[in-house]
Amino acid sequence: MKEYNDAIEFLYTSMPMFQRVGASAYKPGLDTVKLLDEKFGTPHKNYLTIHIAGTNGKGSTAHTLAAILQSAGYRVGLYTSPHLVDFRERIRVNGRMISRDAVVDFVNRYRAMSLECYPSFFELTMTMAFEYFAREKVDIAVIETGLGGRLDSTNIITPILSVITNISFDHTAFLGNTLESIASEKAGIIKPSVPVVIGEAQGSVREVFLQKANEQRAPIYFAEDVAPFDSIEPLQDGLLYKNTPYGDIIGELMGDCQPKNAATILTALPLLAECGIKVSAQSVKDGFAHVGSLTGLMGRWMTLHRNPHVVCDTGHNVGGWQYLSRRLKSIDGTLHMIIGFVNDKDVSHILEMMPKTARYYLTNAQIERAMPVDQLAEIAAECGLVGSQYPSVEDAYKAALANATPSDTIFIGGSTFIVADLLSLV
After folding, report:
1. Is the pLDDT assigned to residue 332 strictly greater than 60?
2. Domain range holding 314?
3. Of 295, 326, 347, which one is at a domain's C-terminal end?
4. How does pLDDT run across 215-240, given as a tens digit for each residue?
């Protein structure tokens, strides 16, 4: 265990980690990661890949696709970020996290190389994932971008299918401050002749994708044009998608954004079949219904307790909150909201979308990037939100539980790290 802790500490402290420190860890460009990849034998060339980018929904889409492929009998690698509780969540094979021994082994071999390059945390972690998938002899790996697309470290792969879920405002300091510029960066994952599925895009954003696909002679498919199900029926523990090409499907994931993700996935599956990756209707149903247990996905409108209903969600930008705010405003009874954010985002637009009638518990996560709670309180007040301040998620959660009746709802979110702190408690 000590060796593993030392390896993780090396990763966290020797290479800046965006999840912890923010902008200072961002390192655009592919030169370093290409060199690193070559030193480890270009492992990603040993298996097929699916590449997924987008502002929101890429995690849910990646996990659900992985779950479907696992259910179909494929050996599936899954690389996502960030992690919530355990670093090893980022790297999975058939839902099982990379072993501690494998993490230690990779770090030791990297340190022994004495390379004349200084990879970022993300570049090194990604290389670890790619090599682990090769060692584990996966058939296919689902690879989620970290930030952007064109200059994202993962963009060294040539996948059999690219997926871009949607475009919204996030990381504007790196990707641009217009939807078109952000779309252009995300479109950077479109490769020559490789089909691409776009989950959601209208107007000028759609034109950005069409132009890039035309330049690359890549077949492009818009999920919004396909209509892969007739209707959606909410259930107590899921969403029923009626009359899909695979029959009626119950999706375990319940956020208001999930129908968009489901349409994207159902549009992607026939394209994978054309590449020889075929799945049965039962595999599709099993993947949608059991994505959490199959892949370890957490934090997507995740119910933690009933009576009171305790739910958390990792939505952390304007696009995500467009869906969350509608759902929260529709909740009957008293709503208790535990919220916190990182300090490198303009959160006023998000706060303006939040229900004014909720009872707020303002807090901060236990990371360097966390927005101080007193700063959050000032911005919240300007947006018409009044709440009490708490030094930690644990303190805020205890207070909300003490105040809530069995018929109330407690929501925890605002940033991935608020949810991570919560999940470390329950």
Report:
1. yes
2. 302-423
3. 295
4. 999 999 999 999 899 999 999 889 99
